[in-house]
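Workshop exercise sheet. Pairs work together: one partner reads the sequence aloud, the other fills in the structure field after running the prediction. Swap roles for the next sheet.
Pair: D.N. / O.F.
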Amino acid sequence: MDKRRHKKILIIKPSSLGDIVHSLPTLKAVRQLFPKAFISWLVKEEWAGILAGNPYLDEILSFPFTLKGMPQIIGSVRKRRFDLVLDLQGLLRSSVISFLSGASIRIGYDSAREGAKIFYTERVRIPLLDMHAVDRYMLSVGIEGFAPSPSDFYIKIDQADTGYVREMLAINNSVNSPLIAINPQARWKTKVWHQERFELLADLLTDKLGARIVLIGDNKDNLDGDEATRAPLGYLHSEQREREGDGRSPEIEQRAKSSVGRGRLHPALPVEGDGRSPEIEATRAPLIDMRGKTSLTQLAALLKEVDLLVTNDSGPMHIAAALGTPVVAIFGPTDPKRTGPYGEIHRVVRGSAKCSPCFKKRCGMPSHLCMEAVSVEMVLEEVLSFLSKSNVGSIGAGREEDG
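Structure field:
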């Protein structure tokens, strides 16, 4: 690519949220390669907020991306007379937009789906099947072997969003206890861990460690709108909940006993009675339900504030990783080598199902084996391992001083 020649550049990456986050280091690389160029990004309007205020971007072109709206999208792109287009989406619709843009140079992947590659003037070969998406996108600008750091994933978090989040979280604040976000949602049903296991995990983290649990997500994350993807979790830490016979099914109660009753996971966990120390019981805070209460930028601000995120494979997982917030991610049908949380500090929990990864939105097995294989014990062990090494109490104290 001629650095002097290209003056107007378009990046096409309309979705999904995680993929857009993965593309942010590529945007920075494009700006470094073409410091004087005018750079635009074509994105679905629902995800435009993640790009707002990005210093490497001159313009955000956001549209609903419906078939009916395609003429408007194409017209908007054509009138800008781009001379270079990077199609990071790699589908027929995005490649057609690149072709109709009139740009003389159109770059995409030779493995693009739906016959998209016929519309590119330059095709990028992906050398490894299991290359992470972040690294794959960097190949589009000819950069290989570069390991982006959190500073390369620029996501603007303004003071208003931070103030809103801190105000909401301060309701149940305790300086010396970890603040842990849980995201029990995902866009595919097959990516969703069992909701009763999320419930038990949240309960154990609160009861045993005094953790403050923040529930995040939005029902819009569900493609199917099924109850299974909406994460009930509503009964947790209710003021009306009985301490004895507390609403757990016999199955969950047995899991709780088998997971922590013998103190196998953490030697410091008490095992007498119900396992709660008087100190923990006195400061035990209700779950903070932030589902549907944040915009995309407020969600980013929230994920910046927490000490840890426990999550399915999802967009919020990638935002947290990009911000440098540690992640414990539960994977089943997808491959963390390709789309896992990017960076060395994160943990991935997987079962041993032979059919994983299958990359299917619908499970063809009699039971959801890959997610069945991930126990509460496995996830809790990773959370405890991280917290024991990170001195979380001092993190919380620092957050209070900032606020």
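Discussion prompt: The longest helix spans residues 17-33. What would you look at next?
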